[in-house]
Amino acid sequence: MFILNSNADYRHPLASGDAETLGLAAAEGVERHLRYRENHAETPLISLSSLAAASGVAAIHVKDEGQRLGLGSFKALGGAYAVIRLILEEAEVRLGRPVDMAELHSPVVKEIAETMCFACATDGNHGRSVAQGAGLVGARAAIFIHAGVSDERVAAIARFGAEMIRVAGSYDDSVKEAARVAKERGWTIVSDTSWPGYERIPGLVMQGYTALVCEALRQLPAPPTHVFIQSGVGGIAAAIAGHLAIALGDARPVFTVVDPARAACLFETARAGHPVTVPHAEPTVMAMLECYEPSLVAWRILSRVADAFMTVDEEHAISIMRRLANPLGGDPAIVSGESGGVGLAGLLKALADPEAKAALSLGPDSRIFVVNTEGATDPGRYQEIVGRSPDEVLSRGAA
């Protein structure tokens, strides 16, 4: 399914608060924060020139978040950043003075952090980031996981010392339960989705994601003409679309949001013109995108700066994992998890659809930017789908 943005807010300026959250000064602050993080390094921008030639476009560049901060996902930028910001803000309140990022590992900040507990619901990647952020400064973390989260992903979060709480039902059920328990126990919810009255912290999570856009704009040989970004609740898509609109202005690229067909809450929201909760259906292989209700902040941004919305099916997600592991010509291999390559899958589907291709003005001069949002965060599942382990894919690609 494919639709152009026809909402009343389309092409209107971002709300002032959203523009501040995703603006240039805020993004510079995120990058400064990253300089105090161990394992920080810019993630690579990979050119798929053979795939671009075969697809009839000028360039395809993939920002590979598969090694971000040792967590294997772009979400390493969001939850941990929000936790650290909240700890420093609490330190300022208790100490009655400004507290700089440089004091993050000081005894006085650690003493304050040890009194705090951060909670969130997760499909896997966001929870790892929140747990890691809390662990960096000695705070506690309580992570709510729903029935569909694999044991391997649970173990990956638990290794950061988080308390793991399993919830029956879907991701949205775990969001509600995390909010209920956190309120009852005085914990701080660090969610990557927002609801009425709860926007600032999801805004901080989204703000953390702007770092990958800043890096990409420095790495790209020319600004992209088209961007395809996958969506769960909408946070990563909104962060990228919003920052690009601010950074590039009238030269911003044509931006398409890509949903799983089985959990198309942003697509249906765009079609209805207001936030829509879609019914739970058969689970999707795109587990990190299996969300049935959009973030209100993300929708407010995307309604203004996204140009199109589309869905991809299960076979598209599986096919792109295998294609990235077995690239054309001299293109390098990329390890992409079940949700990681969905933006690229959306591009290839749009190119194969004459109406979508024409509506987006895709052609031989198009320069495409996509994000591999996760590596093999569940290596066992990855090997089942691709037929080789992540290490085998990368070693063959380097051979």
Automatic annotation (TrEMBL):
Keywords: Lyase, Pyridoxal phosphate
Enzyme class, UniProt record, top EC level: lyase
Designated name of the protein: Diaminopropionate ammonia-lyase
Cofactor: pyridoxal 5'-phosphate
Enzyme nomenclature, EC number: 4.3.1.15
InterPro entries linked to this entry: DiNH2opropionate_NH3_lyase, TrpB-like_PALP, TrpB-like_PALP_sf
A Gene Ontology molecular function term of the record: diaminopropionate ammonia-lyase activity
